[in-house]
Design a protein that fits this description.
The chain has 143 residues and is mostly helical. Helix content is 88%, strand content 0%. The protein has one domain. The protein has helices at residues 3-30, 37-63, 69-139.
C-alpha cells in the first residue's frame, strides 16, 4: 500500500476521532435528561453502530481494508485533541442550544399539555357535578 494512502488514512483517523467525540458530546447533551434508559440505550447502540460502520467504510476506501494499529492510535489522538482543545467551547455551545430549545419548545409544550389536562379535568368535574344535581332532582319527592 502506498505511503500516501497510509498518511491519508492516519490523518482521516485523527479527524474521524475528533468528529466522533464531537457527535458524542452533542448526543449526550441532547439526551441528557432522557428519563427512559432503554430508549437512550437503543439510541447509543445505533449511534455506535453507525460510527463503526462509517469508520470501517472509510478504512476500506483508503486502505483496501488493511487495518494497522496506528489508525486506531490516530482515532484516539483525534478524540484526545478534541477533548483537550475544543470540547469546552462546543460543550458551552451545545448547552446554549439545549437551553434555547428547552425554553422555546419544550416548556411551552409542557404548559400547553398541563393546560389541556386541566381543561379536561374541569369539564369532567363540571359534568359530574351537573350529573349529581340531576340525580338529586330526580330523587326529590314530588308533592
Amino acid at each position: 500500500m502506498p505511503l500516501l494512502n497510509q498518511f491519508q488514512a492516519f490523518m482521516g483517523s485523527i479527524l474521524f476521532g475528533a468528529l466522533i467525540l464531537f457527535s458524542w458530546s452533542a448526543f449526550n447533551r441532547l439526551f441528557y435528561r432522557c428519563r427512559f434508559l432503554i430508549i437512550r440505550l437503543l439510541f447509543e447502540i445505533v449511534f455506535f453502530l453507525i460510527t463503526v460502520i462509517s469508520y470501517f467504510a472509510f478504512l476500506c476506501n483508503f486502505t483496501e481494508g488493511v487495518l494497522n494499529i496506528f489508525y486506531l492510535l490516530g482515532l484516539a489522538l483525534g478524540a484526545f485533541l478534541y477533548y483537550r482543545f475544543y470540547a469546552v467551547y462546543f460543550d458551552n455551545f451545545f448547552e446554549k442550544i439545549a437551553k434555547h430549545i428547552e425554553k422555546n419548545i419544550i416548556m411551552p409544550c409542557k404548559l400547553k399539555k398541563k393546560k389541556f389536562i386541566a381543561i379536561i379535568r374541569h369539564r369532567k368535574k363540571r359534568k359530574e357535578k351537573t350529573h349529581e344535581q340531576e340525580e338529586i332532582v330526580k330523587n326529590e319527592p314530588t308533592d
